[in-house]
Each structure stands twice: as structure tokens, then as C-alpha cells.
Amino acid sequence: MSQTAVVALLAWPVLCLLFFAVLGPWKGVITSYIGSYLLLSGKVIVPMSGLPDYTKFTAANLGVLIGILIFDSRRFGTFRPRWYDAAALIVCCTPIASFLLNGLGAWPLISAVNSVIQSWGLPYFVGRLYFGKPGADRELAIGMTVAGVLMTPAILYEVFGQTSISELVYGLRQYNGFKYGFYRPIVMATNALELALWSTLTGIVSFSLWVTRAVPKLAGVPFGLWTATAIAGAVICLETAALGFLIMGIFLIAITAGRSRFGPLPELLASGAVLLVIPKAGFRVALMGLTGIGLVRYLSLHRARLLITMASLIAPVYLFLRITKLVTREALTSTIYAILGRERGWSYTFRIIMEDRMLRHVMQRPLFGWATYAEGRARAPDVRILDSMWIVFMGIYGIVGITALYAMLCLPVVLTSRRRPVETWSEPRQGAAIGLAIAILIYTYDSMLNAYTMIPVPLIVGLVMGLPAVMGQARSWVAQGRSDRELEQVEQLAAMGRVDEAEALCHRVISVRLADRSGHEALADAYDRLADLRETLDRFEEAEPARRQALELRIAVAASSPNDPAARAILAGCCERLSRNLVTRNRGTEAVELRELALEQRAAVAAVFPEDPRALIAYADDLNDLAWLLAVGGDSTMSDPTRAVAMAEQAVRIRPDCKSYWNTLGAAYVRVGDPSAALSALRHSLRIGPDETGFDEVLRALAMASLGDIEGAREALGRVDQLLQGNQEASASLIRLRAEAANLLGSSVPAVVQSR
Question: Nearest-CA neighbor of 196 among 235, 157, 142, 149?
Fold first, then answer.
């Protein structure tokens, strides 16, 4: 046994505490788990007297749990079990039932439970602990990308140096032969296949971040270079299955999150690849491939959620067909031979033969399996080798265990597709979650061929499993679909001019949803729709109570999920709508208070997603709107020109190409008594675009009148009057500013139009 490797194992928990102290709790978790997987040897096991063996899993979990306890102990109190945690709980508890039903002793039972909890349960639990931390998915995705990039030089070193890093560091020789004339790299993995799978997962996650522009640069380097390096590591491994999974993961991301960026290119490339293999695979297989690509394209364009759901169910459906033998071995092997050829086809056929022998053996104890491979219990007598995780796990823990494991692996992807509309996957804030979900999907596919337990994977599963709840979607899928259809019907009736029927339906929806006090969001949606309907008919006073009911509910949702950026964004929108209602009715002071609350929410969302232009623009919009109210809102009690200038200046710094922001800045300068700065800002506004509303010219008139340029001010006011000709619904603010300018010029000319 390597003494260096033993020292590294024993010292790892102490090193984890250093990670926590320097990087903070969540980044400490990420570094500890990924670092332990990449740097510690899985071949070294330290026997512990009276305790389960000490392994790299023990070192990683011990370091993380102590780190959380010391640096973030309050995090434990935030955990709330959810229905989807049942799968992980069953995975951890199945060994108990399996060992008891097999009549085995207590010590093997303790060892088995410890092994499952260490490799699956604890990392999953830690991921669930941090799912509500703002930006947790982004930081984990970046951590995987960095790990993938750092592995690429190590892979290159082994390929061209034809030596093992494990031997260099720990004195443990690992040799996996050559492939295509190149040395097969292993680094610290079990074998070359596991290393290739890990590099594939990091490449997929980094590709998702790049496609969605979630991380434009990292450490000053364009993120595309990071992505290319991570993907290069997976390609250099030269493992056929891993390369296939890499292409599959990139393809899924490209046709969903990358649709606006790539268009039909992914399908065209896939079709070209299918056509190239016609000489080897034959026309029948090629036709099936092209048909599948066509179906995928149709689903990605019209039923994207269904596409992702179907992709996540491939593994469990395959296992169901294998276990029930609804698909014969002959049907599987003939298809494999047609696609892969004789040499590769025989390899997979051999796997299937071994799995079928194992299935016959497992079906003697189908529910909870044979508990252990010791003493030849779980392995069938005529089985020489087992490669796939599903059959290995099923042999030990039976149908119950394998069902729980694959539910744990597949649920995060299903939930992601249900709670995060696929149409929004191209947004920067979605990139990390989507990349992590697709990485889980690819790992699940690989588990049908290989059996690699990677401690970062259950961490990802736990985090992504909780992320849908962060998005504030607490309603059931059935109820959500039904409520959405009802509100769509309200809109259809209103568009047809059947306003009374639309309002009556809205009231019925509200009365039904009032009975479900847990459905705050659904009820708030209904109140908002009723208010929209009334405001469309200029019934602003009647709309206010519905707006306030919606606001109260949105505040409750945001308070229950303080770390949920989506809930904050929805609350901000609700505040903005009610503020506009109040401004229309000259209640500026209340409108300012609501705008301040909205601005607070937008600032929090922008802080979580600093690279998301939509979040930053929404924040700048609220800065601009609040600055306008404080400058020219028409209510002297809420006027605060100095603060308006500061907000308007910040808005134009964020978005210097926005005309309305410069107009607001000009208004703020007018109010603060700096007409020269006002004219400069208004000239900038006019350079961006012509004045189609009259606000640029009326503010210029005010500024020039303050500077004594009476003639210029009169010309500007004349242009305002020209714009107002025939406009019977001019803004009250514009009419008020025009009257103010006319007074400064000593003019008694009446306003051309009356405000609404």
C-alpha cells in the first residue's frame, strides 16, 4: 500500500477545511468533492478497527460535513424534505431490507449501508442543502468546467508520456493498454473509460454555459476557450462510447438551449453523419436514423418539453424491456451488429449474454436481491464479468433498489423540463442548470454500459433535484396546466370582445383557487389577469384591489423563498404594474414606494445573474422609471431631483444606447437646476433616435428657457405642439411639462390637447 496515498486520504478532511475557509462554504463543497474525486486514489483503502473502511468517499464526505458544521452550520436547519427525496432515501435504506431478508450478519449490513450512504446519500444531501443558494448551479457548473480544463494537460501528459500520473504521485502503477496506437490515459480514475466519461460530463456542462452565454469570460479568458479545452480532454481520451455520449449531450443542448444560435445546423450535421455510415450500416439503419433525426427536430421545435422527457425516460424504459424480456436478446444483438459492426457488436452481445444470466439469478430474489457479492451470492455461477451499473446494483438490491436508483437519476431531468420551460433554456440564467441536467442524463445512459460511482454526480443530482422548487413552481403539473388553459380562455374571450364573459370566468377561477391557499402563485396569476382586463377597459380604480391582492400573494411567495430569484423577479413585475396604475390616477407617492420595492427585487436578481443582460436591463428599467417619478412625477411631496440624477446616471451607464434613459437623465438635470447638463443629455437622446413623443423637445424648452435662450425654447415648444396635433391621448406628464415651459416663456397659449 502506498504510504503517500494513505497520508493524502487522511489529510484530505483538513485540506477541505482550508477550502472552506478560503473559498466559502459552497465553493468549499465543490472543491472538496471534485478535488477528492480527481486527486485521491480509489485503490487505497485504510482499514479502521471496529469501523467501516476509510476510503476516498469517507475522506471527502468527512471533510465536507465538518466544513459545513464549522463554517455554515445554519445551513442544516434550512433542509426541508420533499417528495422527490424519497428515491434517494430508498436507495440508502434498501441495503437494510436486503441484508435482513437474506439473513446476513450485522457487520456486513453496517458496511453496506455505510458504502451506499457515502457514495450516494451524503453527496445528494449536501446538494439538496445548497440548492437554494443564489447562483449555486452556476458555481458548480464553473467548478466542473475548471476541473475538466485542468484534467486536459494531465490527459495529454499520459497519452504522450505513456506513463501513469498515479504512479508518479503515489507510486501506484495503473496501465490500461493502447488504443488506436495511443496510450490510454487513466490519471486517478479506475480505468480509461471512467476518465473519458468524466471529461465528457465536464465538456457538456461547459458547452451549455458557452451556448447560453452564461459566462462570457472566466479569469479574463473568453469562455469559448475554456469550453474547447474541456471538450478536447474528452476527445483525446479516444473512447468510442464516451465520444458518442459527448456528441449526444452537445446535440441535445444545441437543439434546445442553442436553437437560436445554431438553427438547423445540428440536425444537418447529424443527417450528414448518418449518410456517411450507409456503406457500413446499410440503408435500413440509415433510414431509421434519418427518421429519428426528423422526429427530434419536430419535437425540438414544437414539443421541446416532450423531447426532453422522452430522453430522460430512455434508460428506465430500456431497463424495463430488458428485465421483463419484452425485447429478445436476438432483436437487440441484430440491431447492435447492424449499427456497430461485427467487432464492436460482439463486445456488446457478450455483455447482454452475461446480463441475461444475471437476470435469471436475480429473479430468484427479485425484490431486494442477494445483498452482497461476497461468497458468490449475487453473482450467477456462469457469469464471468459484469460491466453495467444497473445489473451490478440489481444483483445486490433487486428491483426495488434499481428502481429507486434510476428514479433518483432521471427525476432531476424530468423536473427540469417541467419547471423550466425549454423555450427559456437559451437564457444565460438557465445555462448552468441545463448543462448539469444533461450531464446527469448522459451519466445515466453510460450506467447502462459501465459501473462508475463518481462522488460529484450525486452532488449534482441533489442540487438539480431541488432547483425546480427554487423557481417557485409549487403547483402540480395537472393543476398548472388546467389553470393556464383557463386564463388563456379569459384572454380569448376578451380578444373577441366578450368582456363580461371574460370577467365572469376570471371571477370563477379566483373563487376556485381561493380554496387552495397553498397555490399562491396560481391565485396571484388570476388576480393579475382580472386587473389586466379592467385596465384594458380604463377601469383603473376597479383594477387596483385585484392588483393589491396579487401583490400580497407575490410577497408571501417571495418571503417563503428568499433565495429564489424567479420569485423576486415576479414580485418586481407585480409592483411595477400596480405602480403604473397609481401613476395613472395621480397617486405618485404610493407609486414611488412600489417602484422602490421593485428596484430592490431587480437588484437582487441582477446580483445573482451578473452576466445575464435581461436581468441587468430589467434593473436599469426600474432605475429609469423611479428616476422619472422622482424628477417629474407631478407630486412635490415625492420629488427628489438629486436622487433622480444618481439613478438616471446609473441607468445610462448600464445601457448607454437607450434613448429613454437619456431623456430621463435630461429631466433629472432640469429638476436639479443644471440646464447645460440637461441639454447635453437630451442631445445624446436625439442622436440615438428622433423625438416622436415630444419629451425631448419639451425638456429642451425648459432647459433653454432657464439659460435665457427664449427663441430656442419657443422653437422647441413649437415642435412639441406639432407632435401633439391630432394626439387626443397625450401623456399627463407631457401636458404638465409643456404648461410649465409655457409659463417660463411668459406664454398664455393653451395646451393643444388635454391629458387622458
Answer: 235
Tell which phi-psi region holds residue 41, choosing left (phi > 0), alpha (psi between -120 and 50) or beta.
beta
Q: What is the pTM of this model?
A: 0.73
The CB-side HSE value for 177 (13 A sphere, CA atoms) comes to 4
pLDDT digits (tens, 9 = 90+) for 155-188: 999 999 888 888 888 888 777 788 888 899 988 8
pLDDT of 37 above 70: yes
Q: What's phi and psi for 218, nearest 5 deg? A: -135, 120
Position 471 confidence tier, pLDDT thresholds 50, 70, 90? very low
How far is Cα of residue 725 from the mean position of the Cα atoms in its chain? 50
144 closest CA partner among 12, 249, 43, 258:
249
Q: In the prediction, which pLDDT does 260 show?
A: 84
**How far from the centroid of its chain's Cα atoms is residue 278's Cα?**
38
Q: Does 612 reside within a domain?
A: no
DSSP string computed for 445-482? HHTTT-----THHHHHHHHHHHHHHHTT--S-HHHHHH
pLDDT in tens, 331-382: 777 767 666 666 666 777 888 888 889 999 999 999 999 988 887 788 888 8
Residue 170 lies in a domain: yes
Angle value at C-alpha 15, between 14 and 18, nearest 5 degrees: 100
Residue 249 corresponds to which amino acid?
A: G
Which residues face 218 on adjacent strands? 221
Structural domains of the chain, count: 1
Query: Is residue 195 situated within a structural domain?
Result: yes
User: What does each C-alpha distance from 312 to 315, 394, 439, 440, 642 come to in angstroms?
Assistant: 7, 20, 11, 9, 55
Indicate whether 161 belongs to any domain.
Answer: yes
Which candidate, 668, 705, 708, 710, places its Cα nearest to that of 685?
A: 668
Domain that holds residue 83: 79-258+303-327+399-470
- What crossing angle do the helices spanning 122-129 and 456-470 adopt, rounded to 10°? 30
